[in-house]
Design brief:
The protein is α/β, with parallel strands linked by helices. It is 42% helix and 23% strand. Helix 3 crosses helix 4.
Length: 136
């Protein structure tokens, strides 16, 4: 199963993809302005180009566990994305601390932004928790 992870932000959407075995998470080029029609179209194109069986969208829950303005914006984006990629499940997954972890890891490739490294951290966490689903 191939999984695409997204770290949504209104300016940039970090992207990462798993290998077909669900073992590795690789950051890929982010999508700019994903909340626009053109940006959403590019996100959908990334999902289709990578032949994703599932999409994992980071949900920025506040440290207290409460929803924030960014949480609500991400939930709204998730609904638009679900409508655009019918047939491909879109899961929301708690992304707390992924950006902080990504900032510490740095990046060796020019194509990887901190946002895409955060998406890779998110995907690694999701893959570890859902290993049985991915390998089934």
């Amino acid at each position: 199963m191939r999984v695409v992870a997204l770290d949504y932000g209104s300016a940039r959407c970090g992207c990462a993809v798993s290998d077909p075995t669900g073992t590795l998470a690789t950051p890929i080029e982010p999508v700019l302005n994903p909340g626009t029609r053109k940006g959403l179209g590019r996100v959908v194109a990334v999902i289709r180009e990578r032949e994703a069986d599932r999409v994992v969208l980071g949900l920025p829950i506040g440290l207290s566990g409460a929803d924030t303005d960014q949480t609500r914006e991400t939930r709204a984006f998730a609904e638009r994305l679900r409508a655009a990629v019918r047939g491909t499940p879109v899961d929301l997954f708690d992304e707390r601390f992924t950006t902080a972890i990504a900032a510490k890891t740095g990046g060796g490739q020019a194509v990887t932004s901190e946002d895409s490294r955060a998406a890779a951290v998110l995907l690694e966490d999701w893959l570890a928790r859902h290993r049985h689903e991915v390998q089934a």
